[in-house]
């Protein structure tokens, strides 16, 4: 008899993982605690409930990395994308859906599948045997969160994210900014130049503080703030505590000399730190924020050197349970210390419905292949799925790991193409063409001849 795959959590990731494994012929049990145990964000007992926006974001699979993930999931027979198409609402280039019929039909499809059963219970401990995928998402129940922390070490499991904005390196104006670590610290030239620094004069700093104080901010959800606020205050809250607070905190100018104007002492300095091994992404150090997205782009482009910045992701602070995946998971998304347990979805350190669902698709296929004794070729790194998995299980800096959206900054360059903003359209098309080719070959490699 084929071994059963147990999936904890029937959200975006758990639902897709269950579908993929069931379609491959593996019996699946989904353990979903709702509606018996509720979260502060879910409203129904349905699987694949969208907790906030009803959009799967851009559907442009030639010029957008999220659209490419859509394409890849459709091409692999994804359930979530199939039902999203069936319940699509007009939304320009975005894939928006009628949320309740959408999640109802995902639930119905899984209930009707002969290989799937659904068990309405909260899992409170890490299972000692069997084959499992944990896909309990950003609002993993407290008991299971504690059990995971006991296994991984408390410092390797976060209960909230405090995301500083991430900027595409190519969009930073290096005629204004310069490379230097504070006090030139570091053993190697690379370490001594590990940060990008953006200088501010006094009037620029004052205008920046005014804009921060005036910017539109998002509210916290009820139950979201408990206990996590002290270690990482949003920059606008620091600014509210005093106009000079930031200049003595993340924007302090000491130990830095502007290589373009060595004789001028900056009044404040914004630092950016490398965010991935490829060196294509930089995060703005200490700039976690609750400003609304529109306000963030406006305010952050006031920083000299970032006047034309393109953002791979904007900042935020949310309740979010996620693992330090680069240290804890292998490239098959298995917990290194207990390889019979895989993780999928937002808990692995991706961010968003689409990314979570994609990690469910990958984990479902990986687990099914393992159970069926088939060799699954590695997911190609140059696909959107592969780029994300590579990032969370190895490409990202483990020390500063924060949840990540899919974006082209995670992709390896295509040889012979121009960098910079001018060649962007051609470059994105080359990324998506390459990804589609590799993904099609990967999916075809698993098709069992009839
Ligand atoms: C308040 C909020 C707003 C968000 N808004 C957006 C948005 O607008 N757009 C976007 O793209 N992303 C948004 N996200 C992120 C979004 O939740 C995730 O991207 C996505 O739903 C994650 O998918 P998942 O499958 O990993 O988790 P989920 O979809 O949350 O699914 C996890 C499931 O596990 C269940 N569960 C938890 N613990 C247990 C347990 N111990 N035993 C059994 N079942 C359990 C939960 O009930 C849930 O059904 C938001 C997140 C939050 C918290």
Your description of this structure?
It is a single chain. The protein is of the alpha+beta class and 450 residues long. It folds into two domains: 5-156 and 323-444, 3-Layer(bba) Sandwich (FAD/NAD(P)-binding domain), CATH 3.50.50.60; 162-319, Elongation Factor Tu (Ef-tu), domain 3 (Beta Barrel), CATH 2.40.30. It has 13 helices and 17 strands. Strand 12 (268-274) and strand 13 (281-284) form a beta hairpin. Helix 2 runs parallel beside helix 13 (424-444). The longest helix is centred in the C-terminal third of the chain and has 21 residues, at 424-444. The mean pLDDT is 93. Flavin-adenine dinucleotide binds at residues 8-14, 31-34, 39, 41-42, 51-53, 122-123, 135-141, 144, 221, 319, 345-347, 352-353, 356. One of its GO terms (biological process) is tRNA wobble uridine modification.
């Amino acid at each position: 008899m084929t071994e059963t795959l147990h999936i904890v959590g029937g959200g975006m990731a758990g639902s897709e993982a269950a579908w993929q494994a069931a379609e491959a012929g593996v019996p699946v049990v989904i353990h979903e605690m709702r509606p018996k145990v509720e979260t502060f964000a879910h409203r129904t007992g349905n699987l694949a409930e969208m907790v906030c926006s009803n959009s799967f974001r851009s559907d442009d699979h030639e010029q957008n990395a999220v659209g490419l993930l859509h394409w890849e999931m459709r091409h692999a027979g994804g359930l979530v994308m199939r039902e999203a198409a069936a319940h699509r609402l007009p939304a320009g280039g975005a894939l928006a859906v009628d949320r309740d019929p959408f999640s109802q039909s995902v639930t119905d499809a899984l209930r009707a599948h002969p290989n799937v059963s659904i068990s309405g219970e909260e899992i409170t401990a890490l299972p000692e045997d069997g084959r499992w995928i944990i896909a309990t998402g950003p609002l993993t129940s407290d008991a299971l969160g504690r059990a995971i922390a006991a296994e991984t070490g408390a410092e390797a499991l976060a209960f909230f994210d405090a995301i500083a904005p991430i900027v595409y390196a190519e969009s930073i104006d290096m005629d204004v900014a310069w490379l230097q670590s504070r006090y030139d610290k570091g053993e190697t030239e690379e370490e001594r130049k590990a940060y990008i620094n953006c200088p501010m004069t006094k009037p620029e700093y004052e205008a920046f503080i005014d804009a921060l104080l005036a910017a539109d901010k998002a509210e916290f959800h009820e139950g979201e703030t408990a206990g996590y606020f002290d270690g990482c205050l949003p920059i606008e809250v620091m600014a509210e505590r005093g106009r000079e607070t930031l200049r003595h905190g993340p924007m302090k100018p000491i130990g830095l000399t502007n290589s373009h104007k060595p004789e001028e002492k900056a009044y404040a300095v914004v630092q950016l730190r490398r965010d991935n091994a490829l060196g294509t992404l930089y995060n703005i150090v200490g700039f976690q924020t609750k400003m609304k997205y529109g306000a963030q782009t406006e305010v952050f482009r006031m920083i000299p050197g970032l006047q034309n910045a393109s953002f791979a992701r904007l900042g935020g602070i949310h309740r979010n349970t996620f693992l330090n995946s680069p240290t804890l998971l292998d490239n098959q998304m298995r917990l290194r210390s207990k390889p019979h347990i895989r993780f999928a979805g937002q808990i692995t350190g991706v961010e968003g419905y689409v990314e979570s669902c994609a990690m469910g698709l990958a984990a479902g296929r990986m687990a099914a292949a393992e159970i069926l004794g088939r060799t699954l070729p590695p997911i190609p790194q140059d696909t959107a799925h592969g780029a994300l998995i590579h990032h969370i299980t190895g490409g990202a800096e483990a020390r500063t790991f924060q949840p990540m959206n899919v974006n082209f900054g995670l992709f390896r360059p295509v040889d012979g193409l121009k960098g910079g903003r001018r060649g962007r359209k051609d470059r994105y098309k080359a990324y998506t063409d390459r990804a589609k080719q590799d993904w099609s070959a990967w999916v075809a490699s698993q098709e069992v001849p009839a």
